[in-house]
Write a structure and sequence with these properties.
- The complex is a heterodimer of chains A (241) and B (220).
- Chain A is built from nine helices and three strands, in the order ααββαααβαααα.
- Chain A is globular and about 65 Å long.
- Chain A starts with 7 loop residues before the first helix and ends in an 8-residue tail after the last helix.
- The chains are: A mainly alpha (241), B alpha+beta (220).
- At the A-B interface, helix 2, strand 1, strand 2, helix 3 and helix 5 of A face helix 1, helix 2, helix 3, strand 6 and strand 7 of B.
- Strand 3 of chain A pairs parallel with strand 7 of chain B.
Chain lengths: 241, 220
């Protein structure tokens, strides 16, 4: 019984605003990781370096790219998705009169916001790398992407980060339900890395080879399912549950 | 080494998790820093622009099949002056098998001939071909001076000693089709051929075509 009916939108907005400030460490982590990744991407071209010659002609090719930035950012959003639902973070929800569903919604909205911002910013790291290479390295710099390339790049980043945010949130939810899931996940990772039980290559190839539209659809559908399942299976009745 | 990196990864992840779980004050400082970071990235756009060649900046425009087809037409019509390609004719009377060492080197300039039964082997190489391969700024790339055949291998020599450095900034991370390979992490888009070979149609060749080498069969 309420003296005045609370508006869901209003609560959601306030929760979002609150969480944006209380989870500002996510942004700090993003900045630190991007800084490290940019440094690695600019300074270390050894992975793609090629060279050769015919006696009178020598050449060296240095390849730079956003691989490091990409994987660092994926790691960041995955961990953020896992940890945003931890008990420590859920305790901050006690400042609001809220429901489990609303908490989920605000968490998801927050992750989406971070995902979109990270995607937008990450696209432009390309120029930073190109600028640094142009300044610091001898030789020529090739390629200057157009607006269409940037648009596609943004959508690609968005698709991947959105998916990994959802995957992280789903995992985080599982981890909150029982410690057994954490153990199982540990065994799962171990089996991939050391035993080779999971066919990683076909799965990775599927993700990489899909075209942009298909990737977007897959990402949206999969993420929606993961978020929905997370909401349905984990609805603690109290913030301390 | 792999274990070392794995251990480093686990350690990094651990500290990341510890930091992310830390409850901090409601500071807006990270958002201000984020704004500064974005500003720095945006400022780097004109710097990156100045670091590249003035002409034909759009990679998606210059490197298309259409351009390559046009190039092939020019080569077949012997309109070599259009693109200043070096031209070298190899008298290889008994050519039956030609293979190219491509391996991991992108600009391998060696041509190997294991048997000789054909009439003629023409070798094209030149700045424009490199441009079509994705290198937009070619200032001192030397032209082919001669092709020597010795002990079953032919080596293309150049007319002056030269060293070249190519910095290829791959990406941005993007999806594309087979003609514009960009994927996770991206790579510079370098379609088609640094070396173009035109050989008589009846010549039997066994070729290992690579990303930078193309063989064209022509009628005599």
């Amino acid at each position: 019984m309420f003296t005045s009916e609370p508006q869901i939108k209003e609560i959601l907005y306030k929760q979002m605003y609150w969480k944006l400030r209380s989870h500002s460490e996510i942004v700090t982590t993003f900045l630190v990781l991007q800084g490290i990744a940019l440094w690695i991407a600019t300074a270390n071209a050894s992975s793609g370096m090629g060279g050769g010659g015919t006696g009178s002609f020598n050449y060296q090719i240095n390849e730079y790219g956003q691989e490091t930035i990409f994987f660092m950012t994926v790691l960041w959003i995955l961990l953020s998705g896992i940890l945003i639902n931890t008990k420590a973070n859920r305790l901050t929800d006690v400042v609001f009169v809220t429901t489990a569903k609303l908490t989920h919604f605000s968490n998801i909205a927050l992750l989406l916001l971070f995902t979109a911002a990270a995607s937008f910013i990450s696209v432009f790291t390309y120029y930073f790398i190109a600028a640094m290479v142009g300044i610091l390295q001898s030789g020529v710099v090739t390629d200057f992407p157009g607006v269409l390339d940037l648009g596609s790049s943004f959508l690609t980043w968005l698709a991947y980060l959105f998916f990994f945010a959802a995957a992280g949130y789903f995992l985080g939810t599982l981890f909150q339900m029982s410690i057994i899931w954490r153990i199982l996940f540990g065994l799962f990772v171990f089996s991939i890395l050391f035993v080779g039980l999971i066919p990683v290559t076909p799965v990775a190839a599927f993700i990489i080879e899909a075209d942009l539209l298909l990737l977007l659809v897959l990402s949206l559908v999969t993420s929606a399912i993961l978020f929905a399942v997370s909401i349905l299976m984990f609805q603690p009745e109290g913030v301390r549950d | 080494m792999g274990f070392f990196f794995f251990a480093l990864f686990i350690l990094g992840t651990y500290f990341l998790v510890k930091f992310l779980k830390k409850r901090v004050s409601h500071s807006l400082l990270p958002y201000y820093l984020l704004g500064i970071y974005l500003f720095v990235l945006l400022v780097s756009i004109p710097i990156a622009y100045l670091s590249t060649e003035d002409e034909e900046r759009s990679t998606s425009e210059i490197q298309t099949d259409e351009h390559v087809t046009e190039l092939k037409t020019m080569l077949q019509s012997n309109d070599l002056s259009e693109f200043q390609a070096a031209y070298e004719t190899v008298q290889a009377e008994d050519v039956t098998s030609v293979s190219f060492a491509v391996e991991t080197d992108l600009l391998d300039l060696q041509v190997f001939i294991s048997e000789h039964t054909g009439e003629e082997l023409q070798v094209f190489n030149g700045p424009l071909l490199l441009q079509y391969a994705g290198f937009e700024k070619i200032e001192y790339f030397p032209t082919v001076d001669s092709v020597n055949i010795d002990n079953g291998s032919a080596v293309i020599s150049l007319n002056e000693p030269s060293s070249q450095y190519f910095n290829i900034v791959g990406g941005p991370v993007i999806h594309g089709n087979e003609n514009s390979f960009h994927s996770i992490g991206g790579r510079a888009f370098m379609s088609n051929h640094v070396i173009y070979l035109q050989v008589p149609e009846e010549t039997e060749i066994e070729v290992q075509e690579g990303q930078f080498i193309n063989i064209e069969y022509v009628d005599n």
